Amino acid sequence: MIRIGVVAGSTRPGRKADAVARWVRDIAAARTDVEAELVDLADHPLPHFAEPLPPSMAPSSRPAIRRWGAVVGALDAFVFVTPEYNHSIPGVLKDSIDALYQEWHHKPAGLVGYGVHGGTRAAEHLRLVLGQVSVPVVRSQVALSLHTDFVAFRDFRPGPHQREAVGAMLDEVVAWAGALRTLRHPQPVR
């Protein structure tokens, strides 16, 4: 069983990330090969990065970051749900990634973007950020348009084809998570 965290990557008032993330989580939870949980950044208020050393050199001693690290460390894979803000991801999502290092390694991710242009530019930026912490991002991604998948830019009502797109992305995430299991849990040398 692959444990996937569906990350709601925005904490902004009026955000859509929580509704989209719940939808993705529900699709994932209906599978027999996945245990899916919602990971809402609004539930994990993290300080801005202000450590004397980067997480790759020394883990944080801050309790909020240690709790966040325990959440990320317990998962096998991720689906990041991100809006597009000025052609990129929200600062809170970037901070949540930057706060940790080892906890991300060898855990694949799928991307679900939303915005006027489907959040595709934010997703491409997120691919670069995740690559730096050794998170392989699968090729398939979901692009939700504020014009066609939301009513009056507010109520989330995805087109039926979007469920298929989520399924295809999850197929890849599960396959990668299984393939990378030995890197996440190396066997002792005998």
> What's the CATH C level?
Alpha Beta
Q: What are the secondary-structure elements, in order, as H or E?
A: EHEHEHEHEEEHH
Quaternary class: single chain
Helix fraction? 25-40%
Q: What's the total helix number?
A: 6
Low-confidence stretches: none
Would you identify the CATH architecture?
Answer: 3-Layer(aba) Sandwich
Mean pLDDT: 94
Tally of DSSP β-strands: 7
Beta-strand share of residues: 15-25%
CATH topology category name: Rossmann fold
Please identify the structural class as seen in this structure.
alpha/beta
The order of strands across the largest sheet is: 2-1-3-4-5
Structural domain tally: 1
Q: Describe the sheet with the most strands.
A: 5 strands, parallel
Corresponding CATH superfamily:
Flavodoxin domain
Q: What is the CA–CA distance across the termini?
A: 27 Å
Form type: globular
Give the radius of gyration: 16 Å
